[in-house]
Amino acid sequence: MSDTLPLSILNNRRMEKWLRFQPDRTVKLAVGKVEIGQGVLIALSQIAAEELDVGIDRIDILSGDTADAPDEGSTSSSQSIEVSGRSVRLVSAELRTRVLGRLAQRLNCAPEELSVEDGVFFQDGNPTGHDYWSFSGPEDFAAEIEGAVRPKPPSAYKVVGQPVPRRDLIAKVTGAAFIHDMVRPDMLHARVLRQPSREARLEAFDEAAVRKAAGGTIRIVRVGDFVAFVGDDETVVQRAAVGAPAHARWSGVRVLSPVQQEAAWFRDQPSDDRHIGDPGAPSETGAIVSETYSRPFVAHAALAPSCGLAEYRSGHLSVWSHTQGVYPLRNSISDILGLKREQVTVRHAHGAGCYGHNGADDAALDAAIIAMQIPDHCIRVQWRREEEFGFEPISTAHMTRLRAALDENGRPVDWTAEVWAGPHVQRSVFGGNMLAHEALPNKPPAPKSNDPTEANGGGGTRNGFPLYDFGTKRVIHHLALQTPVRTSSLRGLGALPNVFALECFVDELAERAGVDPVAYRLSLLSDQRARLLIENVAGRCGWASRGPAGTGRGLGLAWSRYKNKAAYACVAVELDVDRDIALRRVWCAADAGLVINPDGARNQLEGGIIHAASMTLKEQVTLDGDGITSLDWDSYPIMRFSEVPEIEAVIIDNPDLPTLGMGECTFGPTAAAIGNAVAHALGVRIRDMPLTRERIAAALVRS
Amino acid sequence: MAIELTVNGRTVAVEVDAATPLLDVLRNHLDLKGSRYGCGLEQCGSCMVLIDGKAVYSCAREIGSVSGGSVTTIEGLGTPDAPHLLQRAFLEEQAGQCGYCLSGIIISAKALLDRNPRPSRTEIVEALDRNLCRCGTHTRIIAAVQKAAAMGAPA
Fold first, then answer.
1. CB contact under 8 A, A174 and B74
2. Where is A111: in which H helix or E strand?
3. Contacts of A303 in chain B (CB under 8 A)
4. In whole angstroms, what is the distance from residue A640 CA to residue A199 CA?
5. I need a labelling partner for A308 at 20 to 30 A (CA). Which of A107, A167, A376, A575 fits?
6. Section A18-38 average pLDDT
7. Is residue B21 domain-shared with residue B71, that is, in the same domain?
8. Residue A552 to residues A88, A371, A393, A512, A583: CA-CA distances in angstroms?
């Protein structure tokens, strides 16, 4: 365990920000990380229940609330259990120690004589007549959290490590459960006319025609180039929004070209270039091998279009959002609207799985702008399907060129990864713009291209450095200064395209060296945890009896350690290629250190595999002159039930090692395992995602 | 003019334009929020309900066309206190991540099990193929439907 306190505690030192004992014999646990479909709330509840020794059902969790919960930044990058989980563990252990320390004084005994069962205190096994609810007091909450109390050893765990079921699913399978379902007093429905691009000015707008299209009473709110339709009948405002674009004339609209939808477009664009790792130039000694791999722009494609609620009453703005970070969103909204921070409260409400920075924050700002114009009402903005696909920040296209100098045995001694991509993260707190802000009179300047630092795992460079024993290694990152459309974070950032490139290239190098790809990997890898996973998966998938290439049936394998510091995962994929690719089976093994909830963790592994497979095989955002053209599920297809393989995911439990974030660990390995399996099935390599029917046909013609 | 229909076994009359989508009527006029808006294009299945026993999209279905019909939503299957067999099976399998797709998927599964109480895996997949899930919970969802079928089968 690291000596430094987690950021979540450093930023929130007051005990009552985290924990409170409530009169109904429950414990309020407040956290800053939020539920985005990954099951984090039950895992954090388990940690608190474990350290406090209260029943799991007594934990009443509040997550994401700028009035009542700690600031833990954004729920992203597989950090929730690593950072928030560690914080909850330290805070809970400290509170238990404080309360028991005072009880020991009262009873004139040693703290070691005291024990806790479901919140009730015992001395040497005998009831003391005290419990958390009767005995704890303000003095237990007075001092700042020190984070110095040693939590329980994993060998003592009773709740952590158990597959405790999630509590939020009950509502989700029976009725109202989401922000979309909230009903507030004086609620009005709203829709927005989207500005086609940030430079666009609304020259003419025929309000009468839109009112006619609506077929009912609507109010039209205009602030600069921001236009919204508001009314008490959702059907009517929806009709207004659908009809409105035909009655709006814009000038200065940015014109795009389909060329810009391909990753290769970035190669010729102005960029901010960085050289990381070995400072030398790529080696010219020995055999030099180089290949280029790419992934196009892809969408989060949340199943629910974004939704935001806001109400402005008595000088205070309350916002509900399925944002990944309530505090960052509060700061952005208050800055944009010229309100003081304390005038704005943002509360998290559940939405559909987001997989990164989608339209959630933007829909919240839409609602806030309208609420300021129509006070004393709750404004509910529901984005439309084509709005979500057309205007959410998408994940940048990404090209990776790998170059290896090989020794006489065909093993790399010098390695260069060169990456071309737009920004992988442009949240507003990092200088990105929120959508509607660009339509307001105080429109911000175009955001400056930016990407996460290497210390934060990098963006375009994420997993760019191989963990193999390759001699000298360097990454050259060309961060494009401009992108055709707004980009921001999507599950794994550059990890998927970079691991796809790396692990496909390793297979190609193995083939060149005449060595089995698994044996080749193991000969270049000294990380024991990685080796164990590869051997595990190779054993389970029948690697030893893998047939020859080019039969139409393929078996491929790949691994990575997410961010080179989070969870390890190895994935093998068996598939058939005819005109299309049909996934048959997937085997996965992951090592995430101490696992809090093994069932939830497996759910994340399985979900990551299917999500990554969908992206690898099917997904691409398409562009034309007007902007994004993949605006529905026909033009942006994702994997369906009939296309999903059987999945067998296992977790290698390492309870004595620190927990490693695992929500994104299967992403890169799945993409690369599919790439390798397709190459095995066809006897020819496809290096550009998605691996479509057209690319298969083209590859076969080339071969 | 009021449009009459049966929703979850109860006769209701709603005063709306006949072109109003059934989904809007369920959510906003009858306060049944379990049927969800995903696309409005009959592509994703988040809005699915049973009409006269068949699983159909409700997002683009005009209420006028359902007049006199019988609609069942997820709320008509079970409640948190008394969940339907399918809802229980989904909870037991923890067959959800974000859960947004689940009410539509459970409706599709209900229509399947009503006409075929012991479906094969292939038949389950076929019945759910009109429903999208973005989180990748498919394999658990298939297992949950299989479990519900087994739970519902006579011993």
1. yes
2. none
3. 38, 44, 46, 98, 100-101, 132-134
4. 38
5. A167
6. 95
7. yes
8. 50, 58, 38, 21, 12
Tokens for A47, please give them. Answer: 């940690």
Q: How far apart, in whole angstroms, are the C-alpha atoms of residue A283 and residue A413?
A: 9
Rounded to two decimals, the pTM is 0.97
Cβ count near A129 (within 10 Å) = 10
Same structural domain for residues B11 and B68? yes
CATH of the domain at B132: 1.10.150.120
* CA–CA dist A156, A162 (Å, integer): 13
Angstrom CA distances, A564 to A458, A527, A534, A589, B133, stand at: 10, 11, 16, 17, 30
Give ipTM to 2 decimals: 0.98
Distance CA A622, CA B50 (A): 35
Interatomic CA distance for residues A521 and A503, integer angstroms: 9
Q: Which amino acid is it at B97?
A: Q
* CATH number of the domain bearing residue B56: 3.10.20.30
Hey, is A62 helix, strand or coil? strand
Domain count along chain B: 2
A394 exposure class (CB count in 10 Å sphere: 0-12, 13-18, 19+): buried
Distance of CA A453 to the CA centre of its chain: 17
Residues on chain A touching B61 (C-beta within 8 angstroms):
none
What lies within 8 Å, CB to CB, of A435 at 6+ separation is A194, A359, A362, A365, A366, A391, A486
Residue type, A522: L
* Segment A138-156, tens digit of pLDDT: 999 999 999 999 999 999 9
State how far the Cα of A18 lies from the Cα of A334, in Å rounded to an integer: 25
Instruction: Write out pLDDT tens, residues A252-285.
Output: 999 999 999 999 999 999 999 999 999 999 999 9
Tokens in use for A26? 């429950």
Angle, helices B85-92/B102-115, rounded to nearest 10 degrees: 120
- Domain CATH for A196: 3.30.365.10
Nearest Cα to Cα of residue A593 among A653, A534, A665, A532: A653
Q: Write out residues 315-354 of A within 8 Å (CB-CB) of B.
A: 350-353
In a shared domain, residues A121 and A244: no
Which B residues 75-104 touch A at CB under 8 Å? 75, 77-80, 83, 87, 90-91, 94, 96-103
Q: What is the amino acid identity at position A175?
A: G
Same domain, A244 and A112: no
What letter does residue A598 receive in the DSSP assignment? H
Tokens of A99: 């309360």
Q: What is the DSSP letter of B73?
A: -
DSSP code per residue over A516-582 = -HHHHHHHT---HHHHHHHHHHHHHTTGGG---TTSSEEEEEEEEEGGGTS-EEEEEEEEEESSSEE
Domain of residue B135, residue span: 85-152
Residues A634 and A597 in one domain: yes
Interface of A with B in 596-635 (CB under 8 A): 599-600, 603-604, 606-611, 614, 632-634
Please write the tens of the pLDDT for every residue from A301-313.
999 999 999 999 9
Out of A38, A234, A385, name the one closest to residue B97 (CB): A38
Strand partners, A81: none
Closest CA to A561 of A537, A533, A536: A533
Alpha-carbon dihedral sign for residues B67, B71, B73, B79: positive
Kindly state the tokens that stand for A267. 């190669």
- For residue range A314-328, what is the model confidence (pLDDT) as tens digits? 999 999 999 999 999
**Minimum distance, in Å, between the CA of residue A588 and any CA atom of chain B:** 14
Residue among A671, A673, A653, A654 at smallest CA distance from A541: A673
Is position A233 within any domain? yes
In this structure, what token pair is assigned to residue A79?
Answer: 């950090």
Distance (Å, whole) CA A235 – CA B25: 9
Q: Are residues B90 and B72 in the same domain?
A: no
Q: Which domain holds residue A161?
A: 7-167
